Amino acid sequence: MAGIIESSPAHQNFSRYDIRVITKFSAILGKDASCIHKDLVAVLGKNAPSIETVRKWVKAVSEGQDDMEDEPRPGRPVTACGDANISKVLVSLSDDRRKTCEEISTETSMSRTSVLRVLTKKLNNKKKFSK
């Protein structure tokens, strides 16, 4: 792949699944992990997986793993920053922009950390420190 395909924005839209399939295909062809990684970096640039990740995927292929999907992980999925919760926080703030995270949390039935995550990550509200 290196040298054949130039790195461009059109080639950087590969999903994680796509990259795993490319890695699997290359490993079946007999390429080693470092060669596969160089090819991925040539096409994907900074969006390429690390060499350690490529080694792990190549090892999985060599051990006969056919499934390239992510394994389910234990725990709750992160849904605190979903559109519904962002709307709840915005509605709560529409009454009074000076509410604390605890007040919003009580009003919206969301955890305080979820409220804080919505405020800082999704709404880009920065905490202002008094001097």
From TrEMBL:
Region (Disordered) location: 62-81
Occurrences of domain Mos1 transposase HTH (ranges): 17-58
Pfam families: HTH_48
InterPro entries: Mos1_HTH (IPR041426), Transposase-MT_Hybrid (IPR052709)
Name used for this protein in its record: Transposase
Lineage of the organism: Eukaryota, Metazoa, Spiralia, Lophotrochozoa, Mollusca
Superkingdom of the organism of origin: Eukaryota
